[in-house]
Amino acid sequence: MSASIIRTDDGPVRILTISNPAKRNAFSDDMAPALKKQFVEADQDPSVRCIIVTGGEDIFSSGHDLQEVLHNPETAGDPEANAAFTIPTELGTPVIAAVNGAAYAAGFILALNCDLRIAGRNAKFCAVGARIGLVPVGGQLSRLLDVVTYPVAFKMLATASPVGAAEALESGFVTEVCDPAETLNRALALAHEIAEVSPAVVRAIKTGLRVTMHDGLGAGNALEPLLAAVVRALPDGDEGVQSFLEKRPPRYPNAPADLQDMLDKAGATR
To answer: Which of 15, 99, 132, 167 gives 20 to 30 Å between its CA and that of 45?
Structure first.
């Protein structure tokens, strides 16, 4: 089987599977650009309400193909080359990592930049930079502190030692640990739970949290009424109230195609 990113859909959930079994799901050839393209396409599709990225039951990803890194060492720290692994933070659509086995190097960066992580008991996370003489990039020196405490982050980065699923759960890096055979199913259950609520509000939540983490509490407070005003113009609020009064599940419409631009503009002009 050739190295590729496999796309499947489960209703409103887009599943992107890293597939390069011959090299432990390492990113070879054009796999990274292909993953970025798939992320962008899913984010621009209003019918996609959540994205899952996984590598299957045995391994998430061992990172970059080291043979290619030896021939092109600049790719290991190149922001453009790593864009596929950091882009989940920039998307309006929530992204869940379903991790079994090793999530090392670029695989660790990808899992880190997802909104949520569910791990099989066989999962191991490793930021390898210090061990191979490279500064940890791709959010490892920044976003990691949004996920875990400073001591946990420093230990992960400075020792470059693998962190097992149980330790990752204790630190809050992952939200759930399960049998490897159930990791994707648990991620799908969570993704469908997210897909049932207002996709417009979910996008506003992700935008607001991103701005607050980046610019501070004051910026987040200032942005809240602006985001609320954008969403208030949509039918989601009426549907939510009406469904509550009628004692039925809400039937929220897909978010407008230009909603993220409107939310981002509100963030830029707060």
So the answer is: 99
pLDDT at position 82, please? Answer: 81
**Spatial contact of 101 and 59, defined as CB atoms under 8 Å apart:** yes
pTM for the complete prediction? 0.94
So what's the pLDDT on residue 65? 75
CATH number, residue 230: 1.10.12.10
Average pLDDT over residues 179-199: 98
Mean pLDDT of 16-29: 94
Q: Find the largest Cα–Cα distance for the chain.
A: 63
pLDDT at residue 81 above 90?
A: no
Domain containing residue 238:
198-268
- The domain tally of the chain equals 2
Domain of 113, CATH number, reads: 3.90.226.10
Query: Which two tokens mark 199?
Result: 């996709």
Residue type, 19: S
First to last CA, the chain: 49
Cα gap 221→168, rounded to integer Å: 31
Q: Do 114 and 248 sit in the same domain of this protein?
A: no
Q: Between β-strands 116-120 and 176-178, what pairing exists: parallel, antiparallel or unpaired?
A: parallel
Type of residue numbered 83: A
